[in-house]
Amino acid sequence: MNKLTSYTIKELHKAYHDKILTPISFVDLCLQKARQTSKLNAIVTITEDVAETQGIESEKRFYIEKNIKPLDGITIAVKDNFCTKNIPTTCASEMLKDFIPTYDATVYSKLIDNGACLIGKSNLDEFAMGSGTVDSIFGPTRNAWGYNGDSDWRIAGGSSGGSAVAVSTGVCVAGIGSDTGGSTRNPAALCGVVGIKPTYGLVSRYGLIPLVNSMDVPGILARNVVDATRILNCVAGPDHLDSTTIKRDFKPIELKDIDLSKVKIGIPTEYHCEGMSKEIIDTWSFVADLLEKEKAIIKTVSMPHTSVSIAVYSILNQCEVASNMARYDGLEFGLRTNEDYSTEELYASSRSQGFNNVVRSRIFAGNYFLLTRNYDKYFLKALKLRRLIADDFKNVFNGDNGVDVLLTPTTLCDAPLYGDFVSKHNRDQCAFQDYCTQPANMAGIPAVSIPIRLSNNKLPISLQIMGPNLSEELLLNLAKRIESIVNFPTIDTANCIS
Questions:
Q1: Who has the most CB within 10 Å: 56, 384, 386, 395?
Q2: Residue-wise pLDDT tens digits, 447-497
Q3: Active site residue: 33, 58, 79, 471, which one?
Q4: Residue 284 burial (CB < 10 Å; 0-12/13-18/19+)?
């Protein structure tokens, strides 16, 4: 068995102490794995020199300074929409293919300050607009689960599919994604790893190239709950560079045994939607029954505005995209064409060549919704409905018969075949893939996706736990309990990849 797909942070630090491995040797193993799995297209920029330098620093702290940091010698991949100083940050777009930032995103700088080693920047849908990691100038990312060659393969989910594949295949121990409507949890679910979407404002967005400012959250991917929690503890907390972060000091999350008899778990009926596969429904029921046997209180709850949530999300997403993409005009930074007949011609040609069809279509739709004649009809109405959707969560968490958390599917099916996925429009795929995940972003609440078991296709099936603001400790403790019961295999123990 390939230990790279199963090593935990704790096991690695023990191996370093016992000198079975060293940070430098482990970094080299991960770099080698990144090159060996290049056919999956998870990493778009391998940062070999950076990783080795950081590995050397970790080794010094382990064996010379004896001042070990929480993530020393732990390899990471960072989604290529987080700024990394002197390392290309492209958003998988022609518009930024030559962009090299002069500063680090706060998430990345905190990881490095805690000893992590960057293996590379990971693939994504262009500007994070997608749910498959198929719309990238670098080409699609392939899911390692069930991969039998380029003729027939499964999507990795998106838009953080590169990070999810890198974690599942052992290229790195943990990955960073962004989550606007499920872009961390969706690929985590399809690739059989843990995905965390923190409370909005718990983790700084500084240096994350924005998609939808009011919903974007840096996300975390890891192979188990303990490692994901350690990464979250390292990156969370206030940041004076981001005015939207929660200003109170962050108290690190502790994982411990919890008394499930005191935990009320809600099953929202509206999440049982059209198109959900029978295997997903059976897995949902299976875990609910498991938790009930563990003495948890299982209750059916109603969230009446769920049916309009995806439409509201799409409108608000496209409105903010139109605003955020306006900065890429061919003048200040980004792609600039040679059209110099007029300023308008320069704008038009730069944006036409710099953005793909998905990005352009969202810009057009967003500008349409924001026209004076449409503003009240679409944008303002969507904002009012967003408040009602957020109120649904408040009511189920705080009402007279309130619950502590919600248990739902993460995706509506296991990983689709690439051909089937791209046969449908990006908008339709996002509406289908994000149905269960995007409400959490609209309400700003935390959510965790955990793998449960394999489908008949031998592909991961995952479930999602959502809770009220700043309930990460309860969510992660519950996720850890579920994880210990279901004992989901790594990709190598499941014999899905050589």
A1: 386
A2: 999 999 999 999 999 999 999 999 999 999 999 999 999 999 999 887 644
A3: 79
A4: buried
Rounded Cα distance between 71 and 111, Å, is 7
Burial class (CB in 10 A: 0-12, 13-18, 19+), 435: buried
Q: 453 near 192, Cβ under 8 Å?
A: no
Instruction: Choose among 221, 218, 238, 181: nearest CA to 82.
Output: 218
And the tokens for 298?
């299982």
d(CA 390, CA 412): 22
Residue of 93, 109, 183, 349 with catalytic role: 183
Write down the pLDDT at residue 498: 40
**Structure-token match 């279509």, residue found:** 361
Instruction: Tell me how far apart the alpha carbons of residues 107 and 104 are, in angstroms, rounded to a whole number.
Output: 8
What digits encode the pLDDT tens for the residues 47-105?
A: 999 999 999 999 999 999 999 999 999 999 999 999 999 999 999 999 999 999 999 99
Note whether 222 and 174 are within 8 A (CB): yes
352 a catalytic residue: no
Cα dihedral: 460, 461, 467, 471 (round 10):
-30
Report residue 222 CA to chain centroid gap.
Answer: 10
Q: For residue 291, give both structure tokens.
A: 């938790």
**Res. 393 pLDDT band, cuts 50 70 90:** very high
160 annotated active-site: no
In sequence order, the 6+-apart residues with CB closer than 8 A to the CB of 364 are none
Mean pLDDT of 324-352: 88
Going across the sheet that includes 447-454, the strands are 43-46, 117-122, 75-79, 174-179, 217-222, 194-197, 447-454, 460-466, 405-409, 264-268, 297-301
Q: pLDDT tens digits, residue range 227-261?
A: 999 999 999 999 999 999 999 999 999 999 999 99
Helix (H, G, I), strand (E, B) or coil at 397: helix
Options 131, 136, 159, 163, the catalytic residue: 159
Residue with the two structure tokens 């001042």: 67
DSSP letter at 423 equals: T
Q: Which residues pair with 450 in a beta bridge?
A: 463
Of 352, 326, 354, give the one whose Cα is nearest residue 94. 354
pTM above 0.90, yes or no: yes
What token pair was written down for 436? 């269960």
Alpha helices in 82-184 (DSSP H): 106-113, 161-169
